[in-house]
Amino acid sequence: MKHFIRSLQKELDQIVAALEQRAFFSLTGEETQFLREETGKLLKKLVDIQESSLTIGLLGGTGVGKSTLMNALAGSVIASASHRRPHTNHALVYRHVGAITPSSLFSTDLPMREITHEAENIKQILLCDLPDFDSLMGDHRQYVIRFLEHLDVLIWVTSPEKYADGRFYEFLQMVPKAEQNFYFVLNKADLFFQSKSLEIGYEQLASVTSRFQEHIKGNGIHVPLIFAISAQGALDSDQLPPWNQLTAFRREIFQQRDIKQVTAIKAGNLDVEVQNLISAFKKEVLNLEVFDGILENSIKDIENQRPQWIKAGQGAIDLWLGKYIKQDVLSSQRDPSILVGPGYGLALVFQEWKKRTTGQNTTSSDPSYFTPPEVVRTSFQRRLEWLENRINQRILHHNLPSSFQEQLQAILDVPSVFEELGERFFHGVELRLGAHALPSFWGFKTKQYLAYLLFFGFFLLAIGGRNAWEAVLVAPGVGNILQLFLSCIQTLFSPKGLAALVSYALLNFFLAFRFYRRYRKHLQRASIKIIDSLKADLGKVWEMQLDAIQNDLSHFREDIQTQISTISVLKKNEKET
User: Which of 41, 156, 237, 418 is deepest in the core (most CB within 10 A)?
Assistant: First the structure.
């Protein structure tokens, strides 16, 4: 018995742990709170389970003789007409003056009245005369049902006139008790023998008893224990006829019960209530197992679709970078300061002309400059929504509660994931552009300086004249240098000088154009390198986002499996019991 009580304690502790650790998908908040309250009540019952008194309730319809039966059981009049209830929803509790009423009875919301007596035959017994169940309506009926949870034995009292009353069996199905602690009394059995022969009386009694038994079996009590008695006849005479089973019934009810027997009865009833409580988790386990299968299939979907999604994502990234970002990268990397002389001026002219013809005024400092366009962003969002819709369809197909969808939306959170993906794309572009600043191109600048100086030297030779230059080279004095200077000025304003000046300008423009083209090629190569790096970086961002979604679902599935294991322990205990 101690082992059985410890087992009940363990089961209740596991129920408490399951209720405190997590929320339930199949149970509403009100249902969960009800389970907490019921578990608390059962724990309190378990503490008081070793009380030595036995609490017996008598249930029956109007006029079946419950009070008379109690007097017959006690062997004296303990219930009288003066004890009649002022209201039909009150319970009458008959207690020996030397016994103590269990505290659990006072915790009920059913109004009751306590009546003391001195019948030694039932000193260790509390008899509870309950309201007539066929007079109870609405909340009063629920009060009585909750009161029955505190009783150890139930005596169902009926009569030949009322044994087939459907309300009797409807009430029977509502009572959460172990059926081995039910006793059924067919009172007023003397009606079968009034003005009739014993043979006919026995036949009618056997027929009614048989039908009564079939009714009880049909309502879930597999081995009903039925006693046919006449309580009033037992009070009127000490000699009972053979068909009156009151003596056997009294012996069955009032046998000398030691503490172990009483505890066994109480524990048996409590075990039924615990198992009823555990069965409330059955639906949750079934739903969790179905949802676990849905998550497993969804994770497999991601694994199967991953190559295709990565390819589609890379295609969208290529489209975005090639069609939108490439020119932006060129614009953001354009720096005419690497050109010198006429090349620098030519670059400024081209930039101003492009700005005026295209109206392009945005720069890399503008965040919208690198934000993915809607058509590209939709390509990514469509994959995430497909996954969410697929899981939701499976949830609806299996008719799971809406709480599963709500939890799934909180895990996937497609709008937030999509927004986060866009931000990571934007920051990826911004960081990559910042990390790839153009080099100094000092070699390219040196070539430009040398070329322009060489052309300028040719121009000076052309306008200075051969004689003046030879004089300076033979005798480089101040006079010869001054003579060279004057010769250059004189030639510059002559037709020959103007022709040299025009040729010099054309040659400079030609060099500037060539250097500008070379400058553009340098920009193209640098941009291609940046774009390639961006493709790799943004491809990793997309793969990482897919991994994050898969990991979130995997962790969520682990939580579901943990909850299944926790509740399955309770179901296992129920099965073993």
Answer: 156
